[in-house]
């Protein structure tokens, strides 16, 4: 699936992998986020954190009439306020998608797949 953007010079098509890379990079910059997790964590090894090349496994992009809706699957650090970290993820992802890719974001849904304690592998 791709997102199509019409410009005066033509049409731009962005694949879900490009959007997932921007979303994953944005989410992992936030304090309290240990990393990204797979959306199907039980099947793909619940404990594994996703590397930059696999962010697409932890992001679901859905096209809507008003833009796109993004589901972000994260692993957070123990002791952080989950609601605040989630709000920061939503704001950063929405900001980066609109400024870097020019995509209007209708919703950013954050799912916490796991909590990691400092020093835990």
Automatic annotation (TrEMBL):
It comes from Streptococcus thermophilus (strain ATCC BAA-250 / LMG 18311). The gene is asp. This is Alkaline-shock protein. Pfam families: Asp23. Belongs to the asp23 family. The lineage of its organism: Bacteria, Bacillati, Bacillota, Bacilli, Lactobacillales. It comes from the Bacteria.
């Amino acid at each position: 699936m791709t997102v199509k953007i019409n410009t005066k010079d033509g049409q731009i098509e962005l694949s879900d992998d490009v959007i997932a890379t921007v979303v994953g990079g944005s989410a992992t910059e936030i304090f309290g986020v240990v990393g990204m997790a797979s959306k199907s964590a039980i099947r793909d090894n619940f404990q594994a954190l996703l590397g930059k090349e696999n962010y697409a496994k932890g992001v679901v992009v859905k096209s809507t009439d008003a833009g796109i809706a993004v589901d972000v699957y994260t692993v957070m650090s123990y002791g952080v306020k989950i609601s605040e970290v989630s709000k920061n993820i939503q704001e950063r992802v929405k900001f980066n998608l609109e400024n870097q890719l020019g995509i209007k974001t209708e919703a950013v849904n954050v799912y916490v797949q796991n909590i990691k304690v400092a020093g835990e592998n």
